[in-house]
C-alpha cells in the first residue's frame, strides 16, 4: 500500500470536521499508518480543488447547500477513478441515490468511531498494488506502482519487469520479487514468471493471455493455484 493514506472529508458542518479529525487521527495511531487529511466545506470547493486527484478515500456529506453530495460525486467520477467515496448522511432513504453514483459504502450520522474505522479498513483492503517501486532504465529513476506491472520474468541472472510503457532490468532474483510484490495481486505461474492477476485477459490451457494480447506460460503444477488465486482476486478485489 501507499506509504501515506490520503483522506478527504467534505461536509458543511464544523462539528463533523472535529469528529472526523478525532477519529481519523486515532485510526492513524491505532493502525500505525501515516494519514494525510484534507477538509473541504462544500461540493463546489471540492470540485475546484486540483489536489483531490491524489485522494484514496473521500468522506462526502450527501446533504449540502448549493451542490449536494450526490451531484458532487457524479462530477468527481469523471476524473477520480481510484478514490473510494464514502457517503455521510443521516437520511438512509438517500442510499439508493448514492448507489447510482457508485458510492463505496456509507457512514451514518451521528458518526460513530467504529463505522469510520470499518470504512477506512475496507478501502485499504481494496488498495492492492499501490505500493511504489523505484526502477532504473537508461540511467534514469522511474517510480511506478506495483499494479502497473504486467509480469516479471527471470532470464539467467537478471529479472525483467514489464509494464505497458517500459521494461526494466533488476539484479534481484525472482524469489525476491515474489516476496516484494503484493500477494493479493501477483502469483508465480511458472518457475520463470510472476504475473499480475489484474492484467489477465484469459486463462488458456497452458498459457495466460494478458491485456494487450501477450502470452506467458503456465506450469502444470502451478495451474490449480493460479486458477484459485485468480478467482479470489476476481471476486474480492476487482
Describe what this molecule looks like in 3D.
With 238 residues, the protein is α/β, with parallel strands linked by helices. 31% of the residues lie in helices and 33% in strands. The chain folds into two domains: 4-126, Rossmann fold (3-Layer(aba) Sandwich), CATH 3.40.50; 132-236, LytTr DNA-binding domain (OB fold (Dihydrolipoamide Acetyltransferase, E2P), Beta Barrel), CATH 2.40.50.1020. It contains seven helices and 15 strands. The strands form four sheets. It has a five-stranded parallel sheet. A five-stranded antiparallel sheet has the order 10-9-8-12-11. A three-stranded antiparallel sheet has the order 13-14-15, with no helix packed on it. It is elongated. The protein starts with a strand and ends with a helix.
Distance between the termini: 16 Å
Helix-strand category: alpha/beta
Largest sheet, strands/sense/barrel: 5 strands, parallel
Strand elements, count = 15
SSE string: EHEHEHEHEHEEEEEHEEEEEH
Q: Tell me the number of helical segments per DSSP (H or I, 4 or more residues long).
A: 7
SSE arrangement:
Blueprint: E1 4-10, H1 14-31, E2 34-40, H2 43-48, E3 57-61, H3 69-76, E4 84-89, H4 95-100, E5 105-108, H5 113-126, E6 132-137, E7 140-145, E8 149-155, E9 158-163, E10 167-170, H6 174-180, E11 186-190, E12 193-196, E13 200-203, E14 207-210, E15 215-217, H7 223-236
Parallel strand pairs: 1-2, 1-3, 3-4, 4-5
Antiparallel strand pairs: 6-7, 8-9, 8-12, 9-10, 11-12, 13-14, 14-15
